[in-house]
# Entry
Amino acid sequence: MAPNLNPGVTAVCEAVYARLAQQPRVILALAGAPGSGKSTLAQEVARRLNAQKIAAEVVPMDGFHLDNAVLDAWGLRARKGAPETFDAGGFLHLVWRMKTGQEVVAPLFDRARDIAIAGAQVVADSVQVVICEGNYLLFDEAPWDGLAALWDLKVRLDVPEAELRQRLIQRWLDHGLSRAAAVRRAEGNDIPNARRVITRPLAADLVLGPNGPA
# Structure
């Protein structure tokens, strides 16, 4: 059964409203392990806020994936998605710029082509709520821990590892892999990354389980 998103969306939006009452722009971190549902929740929060005439934009961390040629040169291609396979400093700088309220241009990740596209997203200065989503936004390892001071609202998705495993295997099945290949991909890279996130979390203002606030 698919998780019920409404309680989580409502909880996040209520926290956003409280902060917007005190400041013109909110920078929201939506963090969690691979397969925890960050992207889906981020899009639903943005949809609800925009429907209420609160300008919101989702900015995925995945736009800062290092290129495959760089990962090949560093011997990290098989670990793509691990913390060290992203341009963490570049993402931190982007969040700092968004924090100032200025318009910024950001990259987006094209999953079909497995590459990051530079300059693919514009976050206008009129955006009131920036929803950043990614695995390592509340991650207690340098340099990712430098993000903590930049967030106005910190939300973490907390999904049991057994459920994450099922979701991650299904993700690869949906990409056309055989079950054996899907299990290898999930257990060889995605699940170790998930464990790393789960074991090194930074504090969150709001923790969400599969069906709402934990």
The two ends are 18 Å apart (CA to CA). Residues 179-199 form the longest helix (21 residues). The chain has one domain: 6-160.
